[in-house]
């Protein structure tokens, strides 16, 4: 995309690197984050009217929330697509999805 501002590309690259660099910390501290944020994720899914059979796109999922909360809400008849710019954060999200036993993300 030749019409993109080089400064914008530089900022995006820096943000991606910063999230990748912090991914291991997110993984290590995830249990504490999850306990603190689960009510927020539950409320977000509720306010978005995520129901059984729904299809949800989680942009900037990071380590997998609210994608996992949404996946439980949509059940096996629904589907969640979770994306992120950071391969490191997506790797953690994949681990969490695999550990959860969910097959709709």
Name the descriptors.
105 residues; mainly alpha; Rossmann fold; two-stranded parallel sheet; 3 helices
What does this structure look like?
The protein is mostly helical. The chain has a single domain (6-100), classed as Vaccinia Virus protein VP39 (Rossmann fold), CATH 3.40.50. Helices cover 61% and strands 10% of the residues. The protein contains three helices and two strands, in the order αβαβα. The protein has helices at residues 6-47, 67-74, 87-100; strands at residues 55-59, 79-83. A two-stranded parallel sheet has the order 1-2. α1 packs parallel to α3. It is globular, with a radius of gyration of 15 Å.
| Rg for CA atoms | 15 Å
How many distinct beta strands? Answer: 2
**Terminal Cα separation, in Å?**
30 Å
Shape: globular
* Helix/sheet category: mainly alpha
Detail the poorly predicted runs. Answer: none
The portion of residues assigned to helices is 55-70%
Task: Examine the secondary-structure arrangement and name the CATH architecture.
Answer: 3-Layer(aba) Sandwich
- CATH class term: Alpha Beta
With strands numbered from the N-terminus, the spatial order across the biggest sheet is 1-2
* Biggest sheet layout: 2 strands, parallel
CATH-level-4 superfamily name: Vaccinia Virus protein VP39
Query: How many domains in all?
Result: 1
CATH topology: Rossmann fold
What's the number of helices? Answer: 3
How much of the sequence is in beta strands? 5-15%
Order of helices and strands: HEHEH
């Amino acid at each position: 995309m030749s019409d993109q501002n080089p400064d914008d590309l530089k900022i995006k690259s820096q943000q991606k690197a910063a999230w990748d660099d912090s991914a291991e910390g997110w993984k290590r501290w995830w249990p504490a984050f999850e306990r603190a944020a689960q009510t927020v994720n539950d409320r977000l899914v509720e306010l978005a009217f995520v129901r059984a059979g729904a299809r949800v796109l989680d942009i900037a999922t990071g380590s997998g929330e609210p994608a996992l909360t949404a996946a439980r809400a949509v059940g096996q008849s629904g589907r969640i697509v979770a994306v992120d710019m950071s391969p490191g954060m997506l790797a953690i999200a994949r681990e969490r999805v695999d550990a959860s036993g969910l097959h709709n993300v």
